Amino acid sequence: MALSSGRKRGRALSRLAIAAIAAALVGTTAGTASAAPTAPAPYFPLMASKASGELYEYLPNGAGGFGDRKLVENEWTGITAAMQTDQDQDGTADHAYIRLTDGMLFFADTTDETGEKEPVYVGGGWTIYDRLLSPGNLGGTKEPDVLARDKSGVLWIYQGRPDGTLGDRYRVGPGWDMFTHIAGRGDLNGDGRTDILAKDKSGVLWFYKGTGDPTRPFESRVKVGSGWNIFDTLVSSGDVNGDGRSDLLARDTAGVLWLYKGNGNATDPFENRVRIGGGWGQYNNFF
């Protein structure tokens, strides 16, 4: 399955960094498709950035690891959050939402080889959120949605539109500030709907099954297990080992990256961890 090259992705993201000071017009057409199961497990690259401004791309090697990294951007600064999305639902990443320091949110085509496509200005004021995540299509439209947690712990969902703009937010619920990490990419339990995972402050990992209903996107949580405080980062890039299931990546405090292979079980969704390698502590953000 072909993925966009680091060179193409770099052109698109570089253009975003240059254009970020100018706001584009925001579209107003809402998506109208009904809720539907998501596509097969997404197969995204893992993006990793350094505080010094370098952004790297790691492509899955299909064997539970990644190939050599590729430098995408060396001026990845002034960006406080980024989320890859699969806008055309073919299983590969093609766009990204990116939030700047001043709270402006943009939507960029990361497969634009020429770098001529202007990023879409989604809106301002996104500094009210301390967590942003786009795990996939949570229901209501065909496009990927955005989850946003505000600083009081309330989780919100924004439905995606075909042009990358977002609809009005729906309130998912309060109490999400008990979690230090929220992660997910696609379906984890094999029912075709997008799910997420959340790690609480005591180190317990929880599974939230997707419903496909944007007004109530998750079932009641199910405990996966304890002891997850050994990790300082949780992220999912989808299917890493090529078995058709979404997986989870976890970096421990020593900088070692581990793969948890998905098995489709909601109460015990992962196989025993497999070590990918060390040296991952050099990165301050993954998406």
Report on this structure.
The strands form 5 sheets. Strands 3-2-1-20 form a 4-stranded antiparallel sheet, covered by helices on one side. The protein has a 4-stranded antiparallel sheet with strand order 4-5-6-7. The protein has a 4-stranded antiparallel sheet with strand order 8-9-10-11, with no helix packed on it. The protein contains 1 helix and 20 strands. β10 and β11 form a beta hairpin. The longest helix has 14 residues. The protein is mainly beta. The two termini are 20 Å apart. Helix content is 5%, strand content 36%.
Question: Which residues form runs of ≥5 with pLDDT under 50?
Answer: 1-9, 14-38
The whole-angstrom Rg is 17 Å
Kindly name the structural category: mainly beta
Helix amount, in percent? under 10%
- Strand arrangement in the largest pleated sheet: 3-2-1-20
**Oligomer state of the chains in this structure:** single chain
Question: How do you describe this structure in short?
Answer:
This protein is mainly beta. It contains one helix and 20 strands. It has one helix spanning 6-19; strands spanning 46-49, 55-58, 70-73, 79-85, 95-100, 105-109, 120-123, 129-136, 145-150, 155-160, 166-173, 179-183, 196-200, 205-208, 222-225, 231-238, 247-252, 257-260, 274-277, 285-286.
